Amino acid sequence: MTAPSSQLPATHSSGIAFILKKAFISACVALILFSLMIGIRTLPNESGQLTYVTRFPQLAAMVAIVFGGSIVVELLRLWWGPVDTARVIPPSIQSALDFGGRLIAPALLIFALLVPVIFYQQRYILDLAILVLTYVMLGWGLNVVVGLAGLLDLGYVAFYAVGAYSYALLATNFGLGFWECLPLAGLLAACWGVMLGFPVLRLRGDYLAIVTLAFGEIIRLVIVNWQDLTGGPNGISGIPRPTFFGIPLVPGDNGFAAKLGIPFSPTHRIVFLFYLILALALLTNWVTIRLRRLPIGRAWEALREDEVACRALGINITTTKLSAFAIGAMFGGFAGAFFATRQGFISPESFTFQESALVLAIVVLGGMGSQLGVALSAFAMIGGFELFRGFDQYRMLVFGIAMVLLMVWRPRGLIGHRAPTVFLEHNRAIAADLVKEGRG
């Protein structure tokens, strides 16, 4: 039975009133939050006392943006509705989108391989690309713990620090090269991962997060206070640079450029570092994908979905958790060793909780368990930070708004869909005697 036409305008007007009401509430909340952040700014005067200046036009503009943005968000929700995307988009367009989605990963890989060629003369872009790949590797390492095993780890920066200081101490005190120290740094970080895993075997959820957060702070405080070993707040300097299989990338007759008979350029070392971190990141991705298809990877996913059911299936929870912590920590140690050799200097300021929060945000926003989503999220977040570097006062505000909008539209991350590791290619009928209905 069709509703009378006289009811349609009332429904339409009530929908508009609802949208305006929500926008007005959002604007009021923004006014309260931004009144002290943007509306009033304190500045020291000539005598050293603090004075304040008002910035009401900027505050009004921000509240107006929130009001208009809330209206746009609600209109988009009404337009999309609760209907699933696969039913809204025509099959032909959906197949084209699926085909384009399969091309994203190869296209990104080809672009990454050509970055040094395209931007050879632009040192800033090369350094930014190295930083992005470092966080991609950290995100893929934490994705094993959080995305696959479902263990909320807020102290991942501890393994990053262990890898960096392991390489720095071994290289400066024992004269070992990068290639000898790299596996040792990963092994030591994995040992610390196992040490963290044992105390938290019975913990889950918020309690697990608190313990891992405390573990990260413990490692940082040990680095700060154990001055005889770590140098304390002064850090460790003079960390050796990596070599190309024993050939240093320095000017001179024994350098890499002289061996090839080409003029020396400082950019050679930057390009080498780029391909080195790219190789380490791809190794992390390949190992993670292979492990996910093995029984241990399926055990991680079972643990993530339901720990009680995982125990009921006879899966060893102790081994599953410890393996996830150890493997994730190992990749963090590799990234830390690369960070130390790239910087040539490390200090405790580089391994704060903010780094753990940033890597965790990359994993969650990209899509827990999605390798491609983590890579895209790292590129967007690290690149976004650099894009708004000139807006120091508004950079974190814009970043927070972007995260909130992403969580509203994509609550499972950029790429929330994860293909199952094991599935039946054909439907199988169940024997009639095994079901109550009498038919499989």
Structure description:
With 440 residues, this protein is mainly alpha-helical. It folds into two domains: 11-82, no CATH class; 122-409, Orthogonal Bundle (ABC transporter involved in vitamin B12 uptake, BtuC), CATH 1.10.3470. 68% of the residues lie in helices and 3% in strands. The protein has 17 helices and four strands. Mean pLDDT is 80; it is low at 1-9 and 82-88.
List keywords for this structure.
4 strands; 440 residues; two-stranded antiparallel sheet; 2 domains; disordered N terminus; two-stranded antiparallel ribbon
Compact summary:
This protein has helices at residues 7-39, 56-80, 85-88, 91-118, 123-148, 157-174, 178-197, 206-225, 227-230, 256-260, 267-293, 295-305, 307-312, 317-343, 353-366, 371-387, 395-409; strands spanning 40-44, 50-54, 236-237, 345-346.
Structural class: mainly alpha
The major pleated sheet works out as: 2 strands, antiparallel
Number of strands: 4
Assign the CATH topology of the largest domain: ABC transporter involved in vitamin B12 uptake, BtuC
Based on the structure given, which CATH architecture of the largest domain is correct? Orthogonal Bundle
For the largest beta sheet, what order do the strands appear in spatially?
A: 1-2
CATH class of the largest domain: Mainly Alpha
The helix/strand order is HEEHHHHHHHHEHHHHHEHHH
Shape: globular
Total domain modules: 2
Residue stretches low in confidence (pLDDT < 50, at least 5 long) are 1-9, 82-88
How far from one another are the termini? 39 Å
Number of contiguous helices: 17
What value does the average pLDDT take? 80
Strand content is: under 5%
Q: Report the oligomer.
A: single chain
Helical residues, percent = 55-70%
Radius of gyration over alpha carbons?
26 Å
